[in-house]
Amino acid sequence: MDLLAGLRTFVRVAESGSFSAVAREIGATQPAVSRQISALEQHLDARLIQRTTRSLTLTEDGRDLLDHARRVLDCVEEAEMAVGRRQGTPSGLVRIATPSTFGRLYVAPRMRRLLDRYPELSVELHMSDSVTDMIAGGIDLAIRGGVVQEASLVARRIGSSARSVVASVDYLERNGTPAHPSDLARHSCIAFLQGAAPNEWRFNGPDGAVSVEISGRFRTDSSDALREAVMAGVGLALASSWVFGADLTSGRAKAVLQRYQAEQVPIHAVYPSRRNLAPRTRAVIDFLLDEFRLDSAISTYGET
User: Fold this and answer.
1) DSSP 303
2) Model-level pTM?
3) Same domain (yes/no): 45, 168
4) Which has the closest alpha carbon to 168: 151, 150, 186, 187?
5) Residue 168 belongs to domain with CATH number
6) C-beta separation of 196 from 146 below 8 A
7) Are the C-beta atoms of residues 135 and 261 closer than 8 Å to each other?
């Protein structure tokens, strides 16, 4: 059998959970994909996928093979890029996971330039404010803000974002403007649940570090919901400046406590350390780094 073709098909079936979806991707029939998986199982003398009428589930052998298969395919692609027919032309599918608001504002609008630069590349963009399990989800690259603590992941810094306390003009007219972080105790504050300590806001000011406990009747794990609540006058939020960029520019929102600086949030491109970094994924990381350097709201030097 064509072992590489079998591994490619197996990886896509495992990631999509569907023979039919893979058949549509590669322009084959569902029975042909099923036969290819059966041939791979026969070659390895192991059952890889449990099939029912409604679902597909990887066996223990299948889960073991999936990680090995991904690494083999990445190595093959890297070899082809280095010495073969595809030299200098990243190709194939890159699955990217990103927070919803950041993906909408900073990743999706850049996809045309990326795809124009690499005609043989395709992208699948997953946007969610929840942290994605990259291995289980078959994600090649994740964009994450903050410190990346998982030892199984490699993080390359591709940007950073300043943070400030923001409120709508309407809220400030009704409730007054805080002059010192301690004034926040008298205000309705919106906690962003994706942070490590959502109810503690920390600043550096003229007299050094200041930490305050905030409270309020609304909390959220969504940057979009955070912005909407602030603009509706629910309260103040400590957020990355790019979340409210257009609102601050137009004057609909205002940054307060500007003498007190919150810590910047690093933006990382993250990928699993157990896999070789495929040339197509490296090309996407380098592209985003180049793009973000041109944007003052999130610009930084790339670091590992």
Assistant:
1) B
2) 0.69
3) no
4) 187
5) 3.40.190.10
6) yes
7) no
Domain tally, the chain: 3
Domain that holds residue 136: 89-157+265-304
pLDDT 10s digits, 170-229: 999 999 999 999 999 999 999 998 877 889 999 999 889 999 999 999 999 998 999 999
Domain boundary among 66, 85, 104: 85
Phi, psi of 15 (to 5 degrees): -75, -35
Pairing of strands 141-145, 92-98: parallel
Q: In CATH, what number is assigned to the domain containing residue 47?
A: 1.10.10.10
- 136 & 110 share domain: yes
The two three-digit tokens of residue 219, written as one number: 């909390």
Distances (CA, A) of 224 to 56, 112, 162: 34, 23, 17
**239 and 275, same domain (yes or no):** no
| Matching residue, tokens 């950073």 | 160
Clarify whether residues 191 and 244 are in a common domain.
yes
Q: Do 198 and 219 form a contact (C-beta atoms < 8 A)?
A: yes
Q: What is the strand order of the sheet 200-205 is part of?
A: 208-213, 200-205, 261-262
According to the per-residue pLDDT averaged within each range, which of 45-54, 127-136, 219-228, 293-302 is highest?
219-228
Do residues 190 and 249 both lie within one domain?
yes
Those residues whose C-beta lies under 8 Å from the C-beta of residue 133, and which sit 6 or more positions away, are none
Hey, CA dihedral for 92, 93, 98, 100, is it positive or negative? Answer: positive
Q: For residues 232 and 169, is the Cβ–Cβ distance under 8 A?
A: no
